[in-house]
Design goal:
The chain is of the alpha+beta class and about 300 residues long. The protein is about 20% helix and about 30% strand. Strands 9, 10, 11, 12, 13, 14 and 15 form a seven-stranded mixed β-sheet that branches. Strands 1-4-3 form a three-stranded mixed β-sheet. Strands 6-7-8 form a three-stranded antiparallel β-sheet, with no helix packed on it.
Amino acid sequence: MSRSAAVIASDLAAPERELPGLLERLRGDASTRVLAVRGDAAPRAAGDVPALHVVAPADVPAGAEWGFLGRDADGAAVLVAAFDPAEPEPFDAPAGWAGLREIGATLDPGETHTFIVAVSLGRWLVGHRFCPACGGRAVLKQAGWSRRCESCGREHFPRTDPAVIVAVTDPGRTRLLLGANAAWGGRMHSCFAGFVETGESLESAIHRELLEEAGVRLRDLRYRGSQPWPYPRSLMLGFEAVAEDVEAARPDGTEILAVRWFTRDEIGEGLAGRGSTAFPSGVSIAHRLIRAWYDETAPGDER
C-alpha cells in the first residue's frame, strides 16, 4: 500500500544504526515506510505527480536485503528492501517500475536523493553477501551499513569511488566542449568524466582525463559541486575548466568517439529537446554543469 506522495529520508539518523536489533524492530512497526529497489529501479506511485510507491514492511515479499535509510520529517523510519536485479520484479507497482535515470529528474529533490541512497546501499547489500577476503558469509551490522565475516571477522563497508566530471569552455566562455562516449554508442554528448586513480589528486585526474580523452590542456579549474551516483558506486565531483587551445580538441577514438564545441544556442536547443544531439538527463550532475553554463548570460547575449 502507498504511504504518501513522496518518501524523503530527511534525517539519516546515523547514530541509530548502532542500536541492537534496529532493523528487526522497525520491520515489525506498521508505521515504517519501505522503499523497495531492484538494481537501480523502484516502484512508481499512481497519480499525476511523479512519486515513488512506498509500502509497509509486511507488504514486502521474502528475499530482500534490508537497510535503514533514516527517518522522514514526521519521524517515521524509512527502510530500503533491496532485491536482486537478476530476479523478476518482486511485486506489481501502481505505475510500474522505473530506473533512477528515467524518473529521477521528475521527483521531488528530497525523494530523488533518498532514491539514490537506496539504490547505492541496495546494490551493496545484494552484491556483497560474502567476504571478499575468505569467501565466508558476511552478516549485516549497523542496520545494513556494514557486514562482518563470520569466518575471518573482517568488517566490510559500502564503497564510494571518487570520480571527476568537467565542463570545458573556450577562453571566451562562448562555447562548451562535450564528448560522445562509446558506452552510449555515440548517441549522446556529455561532460568528460573519469575515476580518480590511486595516488592522484582531483586536479591531476582532471588534467589526465581531458588530455587522454579529448587532447586538450586545461587552466582555471573551478569546483562546482558534487553528486552521489550509483553507477556503479561513485561520488561525482564536478568542475569547470578552460581549454588552453580549442583547436587541439580531438577524440581518443576508444572511450570518446567524437568531440564537439557547442554554442549556447545549440545547447539551448538540446536542453529543450529540439536539437539533433541528446544530452544527459536532468537527474545527473552532467546535466547541471551544462545547464549552469547555459544559464549564464554572456556579454552581448540577449536571450
